[in-house]
Amino acid sequence: MSDAYNEDLRKLAVKVASEIGCSDCMREGVYCALGGPNYETIAECRFLQRLGADAVGMSTVPEVIVARHCGLRVFGFSLITNKAILDYDTKEKANHEEVLAASRQSARTLEKLVSMMVQRIEPNNNLV
Question: Residue ranges of the Nucleoside phosphorylase domain (predicted)?
Fold first, then answer.
């Protein structure tokens, strides 16, 4: 889907992130969604990396498609909670504990980011 995300909301997110001191934790890139609920395989990660994906997850894309078809402005962000495993010889594995720890560590910052963004979105200006 082209032009899925609203540029004004993206700029607002960057501004708010700067104000709350988390500009360094914000990245923009290509997100690829895979069906879940399971972690991506090494083969999938390698393939997606070759295609130019910067991050992979199990959500966001279906919701964005529905919102855009409803005529809504969309902003999307993802908390990257685990590293993609690209090496078959590694002992590393994606694990749920790593995901939970990363989520806990970032919860307050994300809550602040979303709260401040919502406060600044103009009422009755949800449609494209």
Answer: 1-117
